[in-house]
Amino acid sequence: MKRLRPTSWINNIPAYVPGTSKDTIMKRFGISDPIKLASNENPLGPSPEAIKAIESSKRITHLYPDPDALDLRKAAAAFFGCTPEHIIAGNGSDEIIDFACRAFIEPGDEVIIPETTFSYYRIASLACGAKAVMTDMKDHAIDIDDIEAHLSEKTKAVFIANPNNPTGTCLDSKQILLLADRIPEHVLLVIDEAYAAFVRSQAFKSAVNLVHVHDNIVTIHTLSKSHGLAGLRVGFGIAGSSIMESLYRIKPPFNVNLLALKAGQAALYDLDFLKQTLETTWNGLDYLYAEATRLGLQFVPSQTNFVLINIGTGAEKVYEELLKRGIITRYMASYGLDDYIRVSIGLPSENQAFIKHLEEIL
Amino acid sequence: MKRLRPTSWINNIPAYVPGTSKDTIMKRFGISDPIKLASNENPLGPSPEAIKAIESSKRITHLYPDPDALDLRKAAAAFFGCTPEHIIAGNGSDEIIDFACRAFIEPGDEVIIPETTFSYYRIASLACGAKAVMTDMKDHAIDIDDIEAHLSEKTKAVFIANPNNPTGTCLDSKQILLLADRIPEHVLLVIDEAYAAFVRSQAFKSAVNLVHVHDNIVTIHTLSKSHGLAGLRVGFGIAGSSIMESLYRIKPPFNVNLLALKAGQAALYDLDFLKQTLETTWNGLDYLYAEATRLGLQFVPSQTNFVLINIGTGAEKVYEELLKRGIITRYMASYGLDDYIRVSIGLPSENQAFIKHLEEIL
Asked: Which residue of A50, A91, A186 is in closest CB contact with B61?
């Protein structure tokens, strides 16, 4: 008897490993108020304007959301510097990654992904039956030469995150231009700028303007971090008309929920909150750099709201000991970085608690 | 020069046609408060318990939602009568339809879909490169004999909605058992019960229990209608372990947003609201039946919260005239029902306004 079989490639898809939740730690160690520095969430909470928008829309959640997300896209266009026609909104940027894969990848196509980056690029590509071709990192940064070296007749897409998660490094604008020139026009180049708002390097430049020059580039953006809306799932893709048309064909009609539309729109206009977020993040980074140096620990200077710290051979034990004390960071073995933990920037008191416990443990 | 090409099947995907929004009518005709009876939304609003849950969680929307949606799935398990392991939660039931397609369909597979049903089955199937095989209706109901007649070596999935949207008819439990027996075990049978809560027919039975008998059945559920949460996007799939495993491989980590998790959970336990919803719906249906009869109009008796009314050859004009008067219904030409409009059950005053204007127009 023939049995129901899933697609031939489904078992290649690895599971996504999320950051450990506060709930897990509360239950596992009986800790009442753990500090979560594991998922690069905004320590200030959601934008206050977003909270107000939720409040004023909570009674209309029985209505379907605007399938075009027009008001949200207008706000995003103003924020990212393009026109609404070149923006598509998603249920988090994860969904934009899915759209890009589902619109362009056929089973058997190759997708180039740097070895140490956001794991969802590989998951989403494999879910479409692609073969993931992983490229080497160079000093924790994406190596555009190695990407070029792996281009083949079968390459359909290249994914990069700029700045990169989980390493915090970024490619400067010259390198991005070089990469854009080296990727053939028939290969999709996905540039994920989830952390772009946090960049301090003057050499970085958003690739949004490149979508008007290169018909094969889509940039990806999220309100999860800089705008404090990870829980509501608001992401964007920005691209030229022909990519846009294909992404819209894949988009389900009501993919962005109504409170995400309203809160996202409000948050995009709340520049005060963004300013406060950046100050908190940058001060926190500088504090962690100084403290790591004092403790004799190496770290990877970061253009994001997290930092990769080299703890050495005992990294997993240190991570576990921090958990027991209610400090949730991310152990990086699943990214091939056995000696590292990644810590998100928290409130000053949270950063201090992390350092205090880390120092005691070391 | 080779250009970037989307998948070879993407241009087969038709666009989804949503119900006309209140905003559109307000702008188009300058009407301040139109009555929307076009999208089968709950006229009572969201469950009050859901509103409370949104209120109490609005300040934690900077945190990622629980990727396992465990509390929501526990509430759904209690409501639908199964265990949480057999439930997967989605960003609306649309996403569960997508998961089913993406987990099982390879390009070239055939998917059987009744001619007059929810349009998203066809959209989601074509997005995976499937060929959609449409089967005939019999007196506005799904014809299981015609489904059987279209099974082929290439058939990978069969979609039905029970009760069916947009006709409002339902298959009785004997027909469902017959269909389940006739579909080979290697073909996925998707039974969408989006409107099951509204059924008054004693002959109907939910297919949830069948998932433990047939390894190839998945049932689909939503909180959009009966629980008043269309704006928040909460849907479920229920299936045996092997289908579940495949659906979970496709599920993105944070697909159900945090406020949907909280509000959905609260709404599932709010049985008073559900009772009120059903009373409002059933009284509204009986009122519309009586008034349609009085006006000499035929209609399709409905097991849902909407009713298909045969207006005759002038249906499109009547629909347009209703729009101008601020009454939004759905003209059914895109479903091949040129003489029909579909009207959702509203509040008593909304149903009366619809009839008053309809009578004036006719």
From this structure: A50
